[in-house]
Amino acid sequence: MDLVQKILNYIIFYGSDIIEVYTDLLKYAQKQLDIKTDIVWLPIIILLGVYALFGLFAAATGIRVEGRCLTSLFPV
User: Fold this and answer.
1) What is the pLDDT of residues 8-50, one digit of tens each?
2) Could you tell me the pLDDT band of residue 58, with boundaries at 50, 70 and 90?
3) Do 29 and 47 touch, CB atoms closer than 8 A?
């Protein structure tokens, strides 16, 4: 969520200057991942993958907790 918020804040702040938005986003991604690469999309793809994995983990944990709460509240 932080990455999406960061992108939206850049778009609101910079307006239609999308090149400036992308270069700032690339700098942010490289800083977060502590990597230097020539592949332009790699840091953003890695960050999106990490955020997606954490989201999947949170969703799976929530589903598991919900199942345990329901079985303890309403035993069969």
Assistant:
1) 887 788 776 766 777 777 788 778 878 776 777 777 788 789 8
2) very high
3) yes
**How far is the C-alpha of 76 from the C-alpha of 74, rounded, in Å?**
6
Q: How far, in whole angstroms, is CA 69 from its chain's centroid?
A: 28
CA gap 18, 24 in Å, rounded: 10
Residue 28 makes CB contacts below 8 A (sequence gap 6+) with 6
What 8-state DSSP symbol labels residue 1?
-
d(CA 15, CA 45): 23
Please tell me the pTM assigned to this model: 0.53
